[in-house]
Amino acid sequence: MSGNIKKVRTSDLELKDRLVAINRVTKVTKGGRTFSFSAIVVVGNEDGIVGWGLGKASEVTTAIAKGIEAAKKNLVKIPVINGTIPHEQLSKFGGARVFLKPASHGTGVKAGGAMRAVLESVGVQDILAKSKGSSNPHNLVKATFNALLELRDAYTVAEHRGVSLDKVFKG
């Protein structure tokens, strides 16, 4: 469903970044071990716009900064209606499987780890989410993004079908 991806410009957006995971990587050379770091970061304006990025560097702060810059380059718009998502969505990436379900007002974000960072960055306040399979944060972030990108609100469905908005609900 790559047809409904909407790229967003970073100008005049107030983005908040969330660090999902840092991984220390070791390279063994003849001079000894060389350590470097990879950081996966999610940025969003908590109003439907979100992006993720991966940064790699020899220092943690540099890796995080690179991750933030990479995340700002692939921002997308996600439909958020009344603080939740429009419908249930199941998605997977690699060994990670995620299930997102809209929740009533006051439920909160019932999600763990990497999924929570993505959903809070989008601006979802009420959602039930379950991760199955792999708990690898890289794959969880990508699976959550796949699920969010497949979401469609009623206006998008009506536009896609070429009918009016009230005909979408009548059947």
Q: What does this 3D model show about the protein?
A:
The protein is an alpha+beta fold. Helix content is 30%, strand content 35%. The chain contains five helices and eight strands, in the order E-E-E-H-E-E-E-E-H-E-H-H-H. The protein has a four-stranded antiparallel β-sheet. A four-stranded mixed β-sheet has the order 5-6-8-7. Helix 2 runs parallel beside helix 3. The longest helix is centred in the middle third of the chain and has 14 residues, at 60-73. It is elongated, with a radius of gyration of 18 Å.
Q: How much of the polypeptide forms β-strand, as a percent range?
A: 25-35%
N- to C-terminal distance: 22 Å
Mean pLDDT: 89
Largest sheet: 4 strands, antiparallel
* Helix amount: 25-40%
Order of helices and strands: EEEHEEEEHEHHH
H/I helix tally: 5
Poorly predicted runs of 5 or more residues: none
Gyration radius (Cα, Å) is: 18 Å
Strand element count: 8
Strands across the major sheet, in which order? 1-2-3-4
Structural class label: alpha+beta
The gross shape turns out to be: elongated
Keywords:
alpha+beta, 8 strands, 4-stranded antiparallel sheet, 171 residues
Quick rundown:
The protein has 171 residues and is α+β, with helices and mostly antiparallel strands. It is built from 5 helices and 8 strands, in the order βββαββββαβααα.
Set out the fold topology.
Elements: E1 16-29, E2 32-44, E3 49-57, H1 60-73, E4 76-77, E5 89-93, E6 96-102, E7 109-110, H2 113-122, E8 127-133, H3 137-149, H4 154-161, H5 165-170
Parallel strand pairs: 7-8
Antiparallel strand pairs: 1-2, 2-3, 3-4, 5-6, 6-8
Helix pairs in contact: 2-3
